[in-house]
Amino acid sequence: MAPAPAEDPQSCCPPDASAALGAAGAEAESIDRELARELTGLRRQLRRALVITALLVLASLPHMLGRQLPWLPGWFTGAWSQLILATLVLVGSGGPIFLAAWRAFLRHRADMNTLVATGVGIAWLASLPATVAPGWLRSQGLPSDLYYEIAAVILTLVLLGQFLEARARGQTSEAIRRLLQLQPPTARVQRQGEVIELPVSRVRQGEQVLVRPGETVPLDGEVVEGGSWVEEALLTGESTPVRKLSGDTVVGGSLNRSGSFSFRVTRVGGDTLLAQIVELVRQAQSSRTRVQRLADQVTAWFVPVVIAIAIAAFVVWFLVSGNALLATLFLVSVLVIACPCALGLATPTSIMVASGKGAENGLIFRTAETLETAGGLRTLVLDKTGTITRGRPEVTDVQRLGGAELESRRLFAILAAVEERSEHPLAEAVVAHVRRRYPDAERPPVDGFEAVAGRGVRARVQGLRVRIGTPRWFADDPGAAPATSAQDVSQLERLTAALEARACSTVVVEVDGRWEALLGIADPPRQEAAAAVAGLGRLGLAVVMLTGDARRTAESIAAQVGIDRVIAEVKPADKAAVIRRLQAQGEGPVAMVGDGINDAPALAQADVGFAIGTGTDVAIAASDVTLLAARLAGVGAAIELSRATLTNIRQNLFFAFAYNVAAIPIAAGLLFPFTGWLLNPMLAGAAMAFSSVSVVSNALRLRRFRPRPLPASR
What percent of the chain has pLDDT over 90? Predict the structure, then answer.
């Protein structure tokens, strides 16, 4: 192959776009570097603490057993040796914990680091007099016991919990890293008649990119030449390859299974679907839920209360027994056992795992609060077109009306010329029908085009006044009255009723006040719609269809998919008002599922808005959850994931909080007068570390989440 020509310095994209294009790879490397640095530091601290603590426990064996062991030298088991070893653990490995506690103190706050630092510090300080002046303590009748091993073991267990937590965070971020790594580093771009390989960051919007079999699509675009089967599983959760032909859209990060094709780049940098998915997942993982905010509030008052209980336990037991050793053990035990170190992990860990799992299944939650709210939904409002139905309507019937005068070829040429200016799905169906029926028909020029929301469109074509819209529009405003007879009205009503009974939307074509034709346009339900609606009912949701179509058409579609409640003939501007009314009637929380621009206000008004991923950018931007696979079944999967996450969070809060609190009375010595039970501070530290391990392990169970199979539709 001939070497690629030298690139023009001006040919690359602007600096800001280039930076945006390379952001995904840079972020992936940054995440890995940050995680590796944190894990390396914690691993080093933990190893050091484990070795020194093991030596310290060995040195304290004679003290714990009450006799000297002949195989341990005296200098090794002495108090000064234990002091040195314990100090190495506290300063060398526990320094960050004490520093965090000190910073909290300077802010006049107390947190979980405060409890650990206080408990460990008191154990170390209580041992210091027995090290410096043991003889004087014995002469005063005071015990000269050492607690260095307790302080070291507690701190080592805390470090073990932190290390396991860091590893868990790495596992929960796996979904983001996998998404970021989907984009290939280079693309084969056609420039000046040659195909050259360029970094993805240098590809401009509008350029043509060649994709060969087995390669990954580098950016978003539209196929212009060739065709293939493309697998979008890692983006949408759908494992079945999708056929891509000229005019179809392709998404960066999808895998080309067979065949070669060229596509025109339509999105680059942060505008690509992959970049938006990554950003939404990152926002969801870093946001906070109501449960997390409540946990933070509990922690804010819990820590001072625990410190007060620990001090009270020390004072009471010292006054009752006169034994400073016993009182100190109770104080340290309360501080350590009550430390809810795992409380800070209980919610974020579950949210991170669930957000990543959702992304793997094509479910993108905008915030953690959305992930929380979706589980409590009671009413689900489904837009019809593009949500329940395929969103690709086709003209199935053409009826010429009584006042028709124009020749069919000219009528359809006018019809296509006007409808080409509309973005409505029905307009696209009309244009596609004309192209198939009269592929060489010349489109006349159009003037004064106007779209009337919820009604239709009107324009002037070669001096003719043209209106195309719903029969209701013409019934309310019949146009040129002399050209519209009662017989015409009767014919229109009869034909409209027949078509709507077959679930067809109807469109009237009027030219200069004459009703020329009635079109029947059908948009069949999605293949999985009936099963998906049955699945939503199984989840206990009340399902409502909301549409601007005629009631008979809407009810026909609703009957096919198993929906009993239909709100029809609603103008786009009134959809949000319908959602507000349902909320005001106590049917909330209410969710809305849609895919069009006219759904955006309703999506924003709903407690949770679901946007079909193939819909418009406006709808996706206004929604709370994006369904990348464009399947209605994704709504049920998202709700199931939300409920599983909330259950997991509640379990985590129990592991992080419940048995720590339950053990406080035992640690404070409540049972000691009756049973002689004394909670060793080392056991308290082990319980605290175990709570962190329990939370992390339980949260990672969400990685095994699978939505239930769809039930058989009725």
Answer: 7
For 167, the 3-state DSSP assignment is helix
Closest residue by Cα to residue 371 from 39, 649, 645, 668: 645
Concatenated DSSP letters of 424-442:
-HHHHHHHHHHHHH-TTPP
- Which of 437-441, 451-455, 475-479 is predicted with the least confidence, judged by mean pLDDT? 475-479
Residue that wins the pLDDT comparison between 139 and 700: 700
Residue with tokens 């430390």: 339
Residue 316 pLDDT > 50: yes
Contact 265, 221 (CB under 8 A): yes
Which one is predicted more confidently, 280 or 265? 265
Q: Which amino acid is at 99?
A: L
Q: Which residue has the tokens 């196929």?
A: 223
Query: What tokens does 405 get?
Result: 């005068």
Average pLDDT over residues 243-272: 84
DSSP one-letter code for 226: E
| Helix%, strand%, coil% for the chain, nearest 5 | 55, 15, 25
Angle between helices 659-667 and 290-321 (to 10 degrees): 10
Q: Which helix (H) or strand (E) holds 267?
A: strand 261-267
Q: What is the pTM of this model?
A: 0.59
What is the spatial distance between Cα 264 and Cα 247, in angstroms, rounded to a whole number?
Answer: 10
Domain 184-271 sits in CATH at 2.70.150.10
CA distance 685 to 706: 36
Distance CA 570, CA 457 (A): 17
Distance CA 285, CA 366 (A): 9
- What does DSSP say about strands 208-211 and 242-244: parallel, antiparallel, or unpaired? unpaired
Asked whether residue 25 carries a pLDDT value surpassing 50, the answer given is no
- pLDDT reported for residue 140: 58
For the beta carbon of residue 247, count every other beta carbon within 10 angstroms. 8
Q: Is 383 a catalytic residue?
A: yes
CATH of domain 394-522: 3.40.1110.10
Q: In what order do the strands lie in the sheet with 446-452?
A: 394-400, 514-522, 504-511, 464-469, 456-461, 446-452
* Residue 270 banded pLDDT, cuts 50, 70, 90: confident
Are 256 and 216 in contact, with CB atoms under 8 Å apart? yes
Fold: same for 184-271 and 394-522: no
Report the alpha-carbon angle 425-430-431, nearest 5.
Answer: 95
Q: Which runs of E-coded beta strand occur in 126-219?
A: 186-191, 194-199, 208-211
Half-sphere exposure of 276 (CA within 13 A, CB side): 20
Name the least confident of 20-24, 232-236, 595-599: 20-24
pLDDT surpassing 80 at residue 701: yes
Phi/psi at 327 (5° precision): -65, -40
Catalytic residue among 8, 220, 248, 383: 383
d(CA 331, CA 328): 5
Q: Tell me the torsion sign for CA atoms 530, 536, 537, 541.
A: negative
Name the DSSP class of 548: S
The letter for the amino acid at 289 is T
Instruction: Compute the distance between CA of residue 253 and CA of residue 218 in angstroms, rounded to an integer.
Output: 6
Kindly report which listed range (560-574, 579-593, 674-688) carries the lowest average pLDDT score.
Answer: 674-688
Structural contact between residues 546 and 605, judged by C-beta atoms closer than 8 angstroms: no
Given its phi and psi angles, is residue 625 left (phi above 0), alpha (psi -120 to 50 degrees) or beta?
A: beta
Backbone angles phi, psi at 541, to 5 degrees: -95, 145
Dist. CA 637–CA 707, nearest whole Å: 5
Beta bridge mates, 566: 545
Per domain, the residue ranges of the chain are 25-176, 184-271, 394-522
Is-contact 219 200, C-beta < 8 A? yes
Say yes or no to pLDDT of 305 above 50: yes
What's the CA gap between 651 and 647, in Å, rounded? Answer: 6
